[in-house]
Amino acid sequence: xxxxxxxxxxxxxxxxxxxxxxxxxxxxxxxxxxxxxxxxxxxxxxxxxxxxxxxxxxxxxxxxxxxxxxxxxxxxxxxxxxxxxxxxxxxxxxxxxxxxxxxxxxxxxxxxxxxxxxxxxxxxxxxxxxxxxxxxxxxxxxxxxxxxxxxxxxxxxxxxxxxxxxxxxxxxxxxxxxxxxxxxxxxxxxxxxxxxxxxxxxxxxxxxxxxx
Length: 212
Ligand code: SF4
Description:
This protein is α/β, with parallel strands linked by helices. It has eight helices and ten strands.
């Protein structure tokens, strides 16, 4: 193993110990490929599945893998033809059996940190889908809550603002200035400190750098 792989595995073991204390189901996979195959085994045949916008799900191949499955009903907003259809998928997703997403950050103490613009993704995380399956590269793990929030505001959000072509201060400077601009993508900051019911939220940590 490379030194980075050893570091990721050690940090994952520490983080998983704390995730388990908080009643999250958790797993560690060395690669994205292993993680997508594991995630598929967690999904029951005949179920309804949805997913939130996520570069991790795209880069890992998870989103494409879900689209290949022919024994599930996939609620896929990329198939929507209008804002109304997208809103309908968002609402139906709250009743899904499995909701896939990543987390903007995870503390080594086992808390999930997510910042959302519209709020559909964090709504599903909090309540609705029977199961939430989170795939996250080890680059998302931060040593404290403060550093996790800072990571989202000063790394993930500026890059997302550029990706979404938003005219925000962070898109121009690379740093959050706590804006209230019309294009702001930070409406909701959600800290998930435990899974209720136990094991509803399943976290798969991956020993690679994925998403941002
Ligand atoms: S609050 Fe505004 S400036 Fe800060 S990260 Fe969000 S969009 Fe960027």
